Amino acid sequence: MNAAHHSAGDVLAVENLGIAFGGLKAVDGVSFGAAPRAITTVIGPNGAGKTTLFNLISGAIRPGAGRVRLEGRDVTGLSPARLQRAGLARSFQITNLFFDMTVRENLRLAAQVLDPPGAIFRPLSRTSRAALKVEELVERFALGPKIHEPVKALSHGEQRRLEIAMCLASEPRVLMLDEPTQGMSHQDTEDTARLVRGLTKEVTILLIEHDIGLVMSLSDHVVVMHQGRRLAAGTPAEVRADPAVQAAYFGQG
Ligand SMILES: Nc1ncnc2c1ncn2[C@@H]1O[C@H](COP(=O)(O)OP(=O)(O)OP(=O)(O)O)[C@@H](O)[C@H]1O
């Protein structure tokens, strides 16, 4: 078992993070690191504290204890908007999408952070950083045939992929994804898993995932949560072999 909480080269370091709701310690002294260009996956039974941990890291909830460092910089307690500017993006499944606007318009809005302030009000330049980013994402995410469609006309899988594409538009250093394949068909799940794996060329990924098959095939590093605490951390094979993990998690059937 890899006992190290994090190492100097980690892009994201979570140190003794905690929050209590009334008497309930939803996240209790959790530490781990996310290595550059790796996929780190947080798993655990229902109510283990995964979503709360993500909320603490992404600024949705202010931690009661502990620190979050992004590339060495202390970003604890920053708002989600400031964290995004610092290089941390979180996909909220499909809730960031504008359903009546086209795919291109959605991507253009997400990419506008790359252009100088006010550029969105000037006539569209085809060579602005934002415009070039939109073209790049359309190609990578195979959205070409759909760019003029309103988002509401896309399939669920396409909407989820568009959401991930929009998160990448700001060129984050860390991308947080909460069950990126939830509700997808088998084929869409495979395509999305391949896509997420490909993203590690440019971004460090932090996942919450319930599908154990996907966790084992996709993750470089797994953090197991149980009752708010970090129960174990290591490679997929290490955590699967851990008796405490088996008892608390896999044993639950
Ligand atoms: N805002 C809140 N107020 C009070 N209790 C909360 C709040 N948010 C979460 N909790 C509690 O904290 C614990 C951890 O919840 P959390 O949603 O983080 O777990 P989870 O691992 O994401 O679960 P799931 O897999 O079901 O999504 C649960 O007992 C939950 O009821």
Automatic annotation (TrEMBL):
Domain (ABC transporter): residue spans on this chain: 12-252
Pfam families on file: ABC_tran, BCA_ABC_TP_C
SUPFAM superfamilies assigned to the protein according to its UniProt record, in alphabetical order: P-loop containing nucleoside triphosphate hydrolases
UniProt name for this protein: ABC transporter ATP-binding protein
UniProt source species: Ruixingdingia sedimenti
UniProt keywords, alphabetically: ATP-binding, Nucleotide-binding, Transport
GO molecular function, one term: ATP binding
